[in-house]
Design the sequence.
């Protein structure tokens, strides 16, 4: 019986807390009065990257970075393949002294290790650089969206990828691109590309939950 009383007491306490929380929420909501319909617009991050000057600049610099890295790796891979081919040539191996064969094996191990390490390093660099570029472009699109929204009395600007459907009339991507280009022209002389100083690349991806 004692346990039953404790359960009832606990239940009553929980009910009182829920009632108090509900009353508090009602009081808080009473201060919010939405008197007009919201104006909502959507933006395609992909369009902003592909069509804006800042997006094109960052993409071009990234592609240059990737190309240089691929060229370096191709050179390493070619040297590694040449050594590996010698191992498949029985006549060539028979013509080598034990010391020369040992040196060939050492050369192959060294080249293989260098190639693997450099490949992993390049992939990591590309991944990190891609994140920096996406962060920079996301911040720029956010800033441009705020400017366009204030100028056009828009209450909410959504990333196109966070919506299941939207009519074309609410897409303001081109307006955002226009503002991005204005920002780019003002900052081009003083603000370097995120990738300046690293000439290499990859296709830029969308931010999480973001662009197509």
Sequence:
């Amino acid at each position: 019986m004692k346990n039953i009383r404790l359960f009832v007491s606990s239940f009553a306490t929980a009910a009182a807390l829920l009632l108090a929380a509900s009353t508090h929420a009602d009081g808080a909501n009473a201060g919010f009065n939405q008197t007009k319909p919201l104006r909502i617009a959507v933006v395609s991050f992909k369009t902003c990257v592909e069509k804006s000057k800042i997006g094109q600049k960052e993409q071009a610099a990234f592609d240059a970075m990737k190309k240089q890295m691929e060229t370096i790796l191709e050179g390493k891979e070619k040297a590694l393949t040449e050594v590996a081919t010698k191992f498949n040539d029985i006549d060539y191996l028979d013509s080598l002294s034990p010391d020369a064969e040992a040196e060939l094996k050492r050369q192959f191990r060294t080249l293989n290790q260098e190639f693997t390490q450099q490949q992993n390093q390049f992939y990591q660099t590309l991944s990190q650089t891609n994140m920096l570029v996406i962060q920079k472009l996301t911040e720029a699109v956010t800033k441009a969206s705020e400017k366009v929204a204030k100028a056009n009395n828009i209450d909410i600007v959504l990333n196109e990828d966070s919506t299941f459907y939207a009519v074309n009339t609410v897409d303001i991507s081109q307006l955002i691109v226009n503002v991005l280009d204005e920002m780019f022209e003002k900052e081009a002389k003083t603000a370097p590309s995120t990738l300046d100083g690293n000439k290499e690349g990859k296709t830029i991806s969308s931010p999480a939950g973001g662009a197509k």
In short: Residues 38-187 form a domain with the Protein Binding, DinI Protein; Chain A fold (CATH 3.30.910.20). The chain has one domain: 38-187. The radius of gyration is 30 Å.
